[in-house]
Amino acid sequence: MTALHAKKPGWLRASGVVSAARASMVLPLVVFLSSATLAQSGPDAASAAAPDVMIRSSVPGAKPTAEPGPSNGVPEWAEQSYKVYLQMKARANGGRVYTQAIAEQMPDWSGIWIHEGGRTWDGAAISREAQRGGSDTAKAMLADCSSYPCKGWLLAALTPDYALLLREKLAAVAHDVEWDPDTVCIPPGFPRTMIEPFGREFIDTPQETWTIGFVNNDIRRIYTDGRGHVPQDEAYPTFDGDSIGFWDGNTLVVHTLYMRGGELQRDLPSLSQEVSTVERITMTDANTIVDDATIYDPLALREPWHGVQKFARMTQRHNAMNAFSCDVNIYQTPEGATAFLLPGGSANITLHYEDLNDEQNYGLDKVYAYGAKILKEQQAASGK
Amino acid sequence: MSAQRVDSPLRTRFVVVALAGALSFPALPVLAHHSASQFDNSKVVTIKGVVKEFQDSNPHSWLIVEAVDAHGAVTTWSFEAEGPEVLLRAGIRRSDLPPGTSLTITGHPMRDGRTAATWLKATRADGKVFDPEQRGD
């Protein structure tokens, strides 16, 4: 069993596992929700999936499509974020519903946008050194941070298990063993995709909104056609999860769950498969889109982790959204580090079968194991 | 900042400049697609040579440069940069650096001694500078 698997049970293969950290996640609700709504969530919801809704095209004669009903429940681990989302929806009186006939009234988010604030979730709320990443940043974080949140470096309130995982990764990175799933064609997935440092499009239509990134088939879909979440007994972890949303004025409000977890970035913590999010995406001025987003994860986080992701409109030439492939010349060393062939070079590489439901973590497991070894050796050397 | 001269196995002479720490460089999105841990950001190598090939491609481009020493021995260096969009935004086109172009190029060298580096700045014989991280139109 690998390091990450030992500490991160997936709900798909370990349903019913209850984390001790989960008990601390329950926060008081400010707005009272109707008992009918709350009754849809919780352990019994799987057996009471809501009836499908029929999604109808505006094209005469088009056959309707069956999609999950709007009031399907969510698992216990996602209840907190879902309640916040439903509160926002109640305040917006259900949100504005667009149709094809009034599509031109929707916000115009056309253009290509780039994330600001480095490969971080905290953005401008942390130091420039923290935004830089790499071995020097890892060394400084190891020296300055004994727990998280750690002011100036990382504002996530990590649980002890995930703080240790991060420490192991930083120990590896400090020794120049750094790995990125992007390099082997693994999609960034959500929420990581929202902090990738590449061009991005936001395309809103009445039925769904897409965020399209440069890397590895990175197309995220947010459904605003009235469907609900996938019923629990039909859900499985996907790279971008299951996103539903509604329009609150010019703001797209989104709830997402059933993601794969994995690392948020190569210098940031991992998240578990019990991650869920609430986002409010708005064009705040003609050249800025803001995703005000909160991550909930009872296994990885002691408290929800709020971040403001800011995207600036790109105005230079040559911003076409070309496919950004992985690199066939890159492989991983036994320690877990990125390695690559130089032009004309060659290498013999042994591949091992990987669990496809956990492929986003296979390279990271090696990094965590290497970092754990370093920490153990350092502890032994210091006599502690 | 200190400088020393290093002899490569092929007797090609180049200059390695050890910087006073990586903080001398601004936070730039160098090699965002994969880790740059194989490169030593505390060192800068300077190579004077001739372009052999410009592989202008996603996700990374390679500028391959041949350096010839006083005895005629050739060392091939590979300089890695981001893909074509980033290079085009920096005003770098394939036609700027065709095979045979004389230049002086700097980069962070690989830690394992292989003759490759990140592409920091290439200066053509006519003085024109090609900096992949420059954000000009």
From the spread of the alpha carbons, the general shape of chain B counts as: globular
Total beta strands of chain B: 9
Q: What amount of the residues of chain B lies in strands?
A: 35-45%
CATH class value of chain B? Mainly Beta
Structural class of chain B: mainly beta
Number of helices of chain A: 7
The main sheet of chain B comes to: 9 strands, mixed
Question: What is the average per-residue confidence, as pLDDT of chain B, rounded to a whole number?
Answer: 79
Reported by name, the CATH topology of chain B is OB fold (Dihydrolipoamide Acetyltransferase, E2P)
The CATH architecture term of chain B is: Beta Barrel
List low-pLDDT spans of chain B: 1-30
Largest sheet of chain A: 9 strands, mixed, barrel
Percentage of residues in helical conformation of chain B: under 10%
**What is the ordering of alpha helices and beta strands of chain A?**
HHEEHEHHHEEEEEEEEEEEEH
Q: Over the alpha carbons, how many angstroms does the gyration radius of chain B reach?
A: 14 Å
Number of domains of chain B: 1
Could you give the order of strands across the largest sheet of chain A? 3-4-5-6-7-8-11-12-13
* H and E string of chain B: EEEEEHEEEE
Please supply descriptive tags for the structure shown above.
heterodimer; A: 384 residues; alpha+beta; nine-stranded mixed beta barrel; two-stranded antiparallel ribbon; 15 strands; 19% helix; B: 137 residues; mainly beta; OB fold (Dihydrolipoamide Acetyltransferase, E2P); nine-stranded mixed β-sheet; 1 helix; 9 strands; 42% strand; globular; disordered N terminus
Could you characterize the architecture of this molecule?
The complex is a heterodimer of chains A (384) and B (137). Chain A has 384 residues and is an alpha+beta fold. Chain A contains 7 helices and 15 strands. Chain A has helices spanning 3-7, 35-38, 79-91, 128-132, 135-144, 160-174, 362-382, and strands spanning 53-55, 65-67, 113-115, 199-204, 208-213, 219-223, 242-248, 251-257, 262-263, 270-271, 276-285, 288-296, 305-313, 330-332, 338-340. In chain A, strands 3-4-5-6-7-8-11-12-13 form a 9-stranded mixed β-barrel. A two-stranded antiparallel ribbon of chain A has the order 1-2. A two-stranded antiparallel sheet of chain A has the order 9-10. By secondary structure, chain B is mainly beta. Helix content of chain B is 4%, strand content 42%. Chain B is built from 1 helix and 9 strands. Chain B has one helix spanning 84-89, and strands at residues 2-7, 13-18, 43-55, 60-68, 74-82, 102-107, 116-118, 121-124, 129-130. In chain B, strands 1, 2, 3, 4, 5, 6, 7, 8 and 9 form a 9-stranded mixed beta sheet that branches. In chain B, strand 8 and strand 9 form a beta hairpin. The chains are: A alpha+beta (384), B mainly beta (137).
